[in-house]
Design a protein that fits this description.
Blueprint (H helix, E strand, L loop, with lengths): L10 E3 L4 E3 L1 E3 L14 E5 L8 E6 L6 E6 L4 E5 L4 E4 L14 E7 L2 E9 L11 E5 L7 E4 L17 E3 L7 E4 L5 E4 L7 E2 L14 E7 L2 E6 L11 E4 L6 E2 L11 E8 L4 E7 L10 E7 L4 E4 L7 E2 L5 E2 L2 E7 L7 E6 L8 E4 L7 E2 L5 E2 L22 E4 L7 E4 L4 E4 L4 E4 L9 E5 L8 E5 L3 E5 L19 E6 L7 E5 L6 E4 L7 E2 L11 E6 L6 E6 L5 E7 L7 E3 L8 E3 L7 E5 L4 E5 L7 E2 L12 E4 L7 E4 L5 E4 L7 E3 L4 E8 L9 E7 L5 E5 L7 E2 L14 E3 L7 E4 L5 E6 L1
Parallel strand pairs: 3-54, 31-35
Antiparallel strand pairs: 1-2, 4-61, 5-6, 6-7, 7-8, 9-10, 10-11, 11-12, 13-14, 14-15, 15-16, 17-18, 18-19, 19-20, 21-22, 22-23, 23-24, 25-26, 27-28, 28-29, 29-30, 32-33, 33-34, 34-35, 36-37, 37-38, 39-40, 40-41, 41-42, 43-44, 44-45, 45-46, 47-48, 48-49, 49-50, 51-52, 52-53, 53-54, 55-56, 56-57, ...
């Protein structure tokens, strides 16, 4: 999330005397310098790793499908290549909020047309949403900005679709919003207006319109803000596009509070609707499945299994219903998914007789996660699924079913054998990256949700999957001893301990023998001395509360508090001197340093930019006291005396994250890589001359929204850079 630019300071104070702020001479850098080599960008392969919230097969084109994610954009399925093609990587820094896809729509009458409703958050600090429309299946786009906010990463993100092309008129589109009612466009999404005739009033809270679906020439809209009492309507329809009414006889009561998804069987003229008591993906405890015979107006409860029983272990079997899809080739055949069924694990139910009987596809499923081993979650049997709110049946192949989970997209071609159908789709939120100077792997990553991974190959999901011992969720820290690259430490959220070390470069891990009590609730970043002799662990709760850092000199067997370390700061080890550590107090704009292995810290330079927790210090490899401060909109600063004095780098207008790579031919200083700007455009930049000049190395087609968390070059391969994104995985670039 971006924050306002902070004011610049004129003077920096050291510990003994005032240090003057000087400026490195500015040299203007073009977007791409003359003769600079363009870059080829690819994903480091992990496979999925995030919530696939929607999958839509095209009804008129064999082998064409689209997928949406909550924070990682949209994709098109290439049947011949058996992989997904990303469609929204062109969205840049200022459009970070548009990487979340609220809904997808296609036009059955015009196979090349595609529409996306974009907007990750509906909160006041997020920007308005937008609608993209394409005439070439997402190769190029025309954009229409909305004056309302959408919420692709909020509760209810697996519902929908909320965007629909009117089957009676391809120029007319409908968009259901969370807080601004129903919108309509009559010019293919170029402009939008509220539908004042829609019976429900817009609300600043709640779910609003949860789904839009066509049943023949009649349109249905789900409403998620009802109170669940008898007589409260949550499903509406229009047959002429002008007059809306509540659907008569619709289910009522608590289990039917939120209509999650709907699908229409054109052969039997029946509309299937899944319901839950909350929008999901979390918080559902009950639900149901109903079908409406649209010609007669009669409803039938076809719920496969009623929530609320007990499992064989005696746990409460609570869940809602989520995804629903019909088989376009076989009348009366439909598939629905349970959701939030943690005790007995979620499943897909399939019927071939209109819902009179159902079969659980999980019961006979054979899961093969060879292609993405992290789905074994540390060696246990992979789960059939969780957070299943989308399921789709190929209209040209009844036995080809796919469903999304919180981590992947599973597919089958025979209703029994299932494997991730995820090639090309990478949704990881990346937190840390380390590129070792030696060893098998060129990359180790710390990731949201799936911990730490050791990438022995960049073109295949790590064979060891997630780092184990212990298995952890989101990584909070990852560090390598600069002069002892075989020694690596990591921290993160976990149920069986929150930290571990490796003596073989990150291939295998040993848990810390002990940890500070606060580590369970507030694991934060960690640093290792250049020779691995000391560890410094900082603690930050997810709500922002900070705690004193702790230090260990015995691989985490014992820990002592470092009272002089600024609470919540990120510790940085000097790459050449094991006795030196650094920490930047973002609250006061003060650089603190230690010369006794992290036991004590003293303030050095002060008066630096302050007030933002995402200011970052980076230490140049192989050098003592050579520090770089990325201060976001305040620019880039450098110290060559261990933080006593900082000079502002005036060739750089903004700097969000910075890293180092192998020096260019003939250069004596490592290559610098950063996400920042020399002018008005925030981009991925490289400097081969100690930040005197910069060259942009990404392009307008490769921007990936917000990329301000982490970047690092490869110390062994000239020109190679690794970039962390917030929803599009790890990108790596090479000069071509």
């Amino acid at each position: 999330m971006r924050t306002p630019r902070l004011s610049r300071r004129a003077v920096l104070a050291g510990t003994a005397a005032t240090a003057a702020l000087t400026a490195v001479p500015a040299v203007a850098a073009p977007a791409r310098a003359a003769g600079a080599r363009p870059y080829r960008w690819r994903n480091v392969v992990i496979g999925g790793t995030g919530f696939v919230t929607g999958v839509l097969f095209h009804p008129s084109v064999r082998g064409l499908a689209y997928a949406r994610t909550d924070i990682g954009g949209a994709y098109r399925w290439d049947e011949r290549a058996a992989r997904w093609t990303p469609l929204t990587d062109h969205l840049g820094w200022d459009d970070w909020n548009l990487l979340g896809v609220e809904a997808i729509a296609v036009d059955a009458a015009h196979p090349n047309r595609l529409y996306l409703a974009l907007g990750t958050y509906a909160q006041s600090w997020a920007g308005p949403g937008a609608v993209l429309r394409s005439d070439d299946r997402g190769a190029t786009w025309t954009r229409a900005d909305l004056d309302v906010r959408l919420g692709a990463n909020e509760d209810g993100r697996g519902a929908g679709e909320r965007l629909l092309v009117d089957p009676r008129d391809s120029d007319t589109l409908w968009l259901g919003t969370r807080h601004d009612g129903l919108l309509k466009s009559t010019d293919r999404g170029a402009s939008w207006a509220p539908v004042t005739a829609f019976p429900q009033a817009a609300s600043g809270t709640g779910q609003g319109v949860t789904l839009l679906v066509a049943a023949g020439r009649t349109l249905y809209a789900g409403w998620g803000d009802g109170d669940g009492t008898a007589g409260t309507a949550n499903l509406y329809r229009t047959s002429d596009g002008t007059h809306w009414e509540a659907v008569p006889g619709q289910p009522s009561g608590t289990p039917a509070k939120v209509p999650v998804r709907a699908a229409y069987d054109a052969h039997t003229r029946e509309l299937y609707v899944t319901y839950a008591d909350a929008p999901g993906p979390n918080g559902q405890s009950t639900g149901s499945v109903h079908k409406l015979r649209t010609a007669r107006g009669t409803w039938t409860d076809v719920t496969p299994v009623r929530p609320g029983g007990t499992t064989s272990e005696g746990s409460a079997d609570t869940f809602g219903y989520g995804g629903v899809a019909v088989d376009a080739r076989r009348p009366g055949t439909a598939v629905v998914s349970t959701n939030n069924r943690w005790a007995d694990v979620d499943t897909l139910f399939r019927t071939t007789d209109g819902g009179r009987t159902w079969t659980s596809l999980k019961d006979t499923a054979v899961l093969d996660v060879t292609e993405t081993p992290y789905l074994n979650w540390g060696g246990s049997t992979p789960k059939f699924g969780w957070w299943i709110q989308t399921v789709a049946v190929d209209p040209y192949d009844s036995r080809h079913i796919v469903y999304g989970t919180g981590a992947t997209l599973y597919g089958t071609r025979d209703l029994r054998h299932w494997a991730p159908q995820i090639r090309g789709l990478e949704e990881t939120a990346v937190r840390q990256l380390v590129s070792p100077p030696a060893g098998e792997a060129h990359l180790i990553s710390g990731l949201g949700d799936i911990g730490v991974m050791y990438h022995e190959r960049l073109t295949a999901s790590p064979s060891r999957g997630m780092a184990t011992h212990p298995v952890s969720g989101s990584a909070t820290g990852l560090a390598q001893a600069a002069a002892r690259p075989s020694y690596v430490v990591r921290t993160g959220w976990g149920d069986h301990g929150n930290g571990a070390y490796s003596d073989d470069g990150g291939r295998t891990w040993t848990p810390f023998a002990a940890q500070p009590a606060i580590a369970k609730d507030a694991p934060g970043p960690i640093a290792a001395a250049a020779d691995g002799s000391a560890l410094l662990w900082s603690f930050v709760h997810w709500d922002g509360t900070t705690y004193p850092a702790h230090r260990s000199t015995d691989n985490g067997a014992t820990w002592t508090e470092t009272a002089t370390f600024p609470k919540g700061a990120t510790p940085v080890a000097d790459p050449a001197d094991p006795a030196r550590f650094y920490a930047y107090d973002t609250a006061t704009g003060t650089l603190h340093a230690s010369t006794d292995g992290g036991a004590t810290f003293t303030p050095r330079a002060s008066g630096l930019p302050s007030g933002d927790s995402q200011f970052r210090i980076a230490a140049a490899p192989g050098r003592t006291g050579d520090l770089w401060l990325s201060a976001k909109g305040n620019g880039l600063y450098r110290s060559t005396d261990g933080g006593a004095n900082f000079d502002k780098v005036s060739s750089c207008r903004s700097s969000y994250t910075l890293g180092f790579g192998r020096a260019a031919d003939g250069a004596r200083y490592p290559a610098l890589y950063q996400v920042g700007s020399t002018g008005t455009v925030t981009a991925v930049l490289r400097s081969d001359d100690e930040a005197k000049t910069w060259v942009r190395i990404n392009d307008d087609a490769h921007q990936w929204g917000w990329t301000g968390e982490v970047i690092t070059g490869d110390p062994r391969i000239r020109g190679r850079v690794y970039l962390g994104t917030n929803g599009r995985g790890i990108q790596y670039g090479d000069p071509v």
